[in-house]
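Can't paste images in this forum, so I'm doing it all in text. The chain is below; anyone willing to post the predicted structure tokens underneath?
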Amino acid sequence: MTLVVTDLGDSFPGVDHRPDVCGGDACIVQTRIPVWTLVRARQLGLSDSKILDAYPSLTAEDLADAWAYARIHADEIEQQIAQNENA
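Text version of the structure:
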């Protein structure tokens, strides 16, 4: 039997947390683009296409990773949005 798909659990290979990048906020790997920024853009009505236009270094896969991460970590993302909008 060959495994085609492996459950990654709470692992998000396209999203990284590093204390030296964006204050430790979850970011798209190899960028300094926080997941909360992308979520907030979507909340403000930007389509995925418009977000990709605004961030040409991102791919559709990056957005899929961001949306999956945000679904599992909704409280964390909402807190980061609130902190950054009140800054």
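The chain has one domain: 15-85. Strands lie at 15-16, 27-28.
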